[in-house]
Design brief:
92 residues, mainly alpha
Amino acid sequence: MTDAYLGGPFHGAGLPARLTAHEARIRVFDPCRRGVDPDQVREFQALVADELSDLHGWIRLLGEENGRLRRALRDWQTMHARECRPPNQGHW
């Protein structure tokens, strides 16, 4: 399977590195002949940066919840394994 992502550097897991809100806010665009309204670009950058910040916060919270659930499941499995005994004490 070939990599289809062409937009940025990859980190160790093979996924693209995340763009941070700070990187979105400070991004500078090359000037061109006709150009664009710099105020609109800065407004859009702020919107993107805010969205990235919110998403990174959600990712962090979901990761913490995932860890909590994994620990709870592991604890339950350990407790359940201790309480369960084989159904019979016979040869098999």
